[in-house]
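Input sequence (132 aa), recorded before submission:
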Amino acid sequence: MKMKDIENRKDIESLVNSFYDKVKQNPIIDKFFTPEQGFSFERHIPIMCDFWETILLHQQKYSGSPVAKHFEVDRKIKIDKTHFDEWVSLFFSSVDEAFQGEVAEEAKKRASLMSQLMLYKVEYSRDHNLLM
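Predicted structure, token format:
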């Protein structure tokens, strides 16, 4: 049976929730997503739904600074390539389990590119003492 593509906010919410269900169970990256780190799924998930809706469905819902957030996290627990690779793997798995099509492929492409860029920015900022 052919799966549907990502088409609307409900699909984005399904994807994001599936992804964070995996994150909660993942021993490599779950440490970044704890109350001890000041993290709240209740606050974060709607923001990420807005983020992905903006990226994939071209609905201007998200306004924020993901780079600054990752700098903040990196000050508490260093983020490295292993963490970003695991994030991408979980995201790809979440997409592939439920969706198929042009937007689904774009989601994976964007996630991969964003993780590479974020890793570069975090490492560069750390190496040059630029973390804010």
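Checked by second reader. The mean pLDDT is 93.
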